Amino acid sequence: MSRIYLDHASTTPMRPEVLEVMLPFLKEQYGNPSSIYGEGRDARKALDQARDKLAKALGASPREIVFTSGGSEADNFAIKGAAFALRDRGNHIITSAIEHHAVYNTCRYLEKHGFRITVLPVDSYGLEDPADVEAALIPETNLVSIMHANNEIGTIQPITEISKTLRERKVLFHTDAVQTVGHIPVNVQELGVDLLSLSAHKFYGPKGVGALYVRRGVRLDPLIHGGAQEHNRRAGTENVAGIVGMAEALELAVEEMDKEAQRQRELRDRLIKGIMERIPHTRLNGHPTKRLPGNVSVCFEFIEGESLLLNLDMQGIAASSGSACTSGSLEPSHVLLALGLPHEIAHGSLRVTLGRDTTAADIDAVMEVLPGTVDKLRQRSPLYDADALRKAH
Question: Which residue among the candidates 136, 261, 318, 325 is catalytic per the annotation?
Answer without folding.
Answer: 325
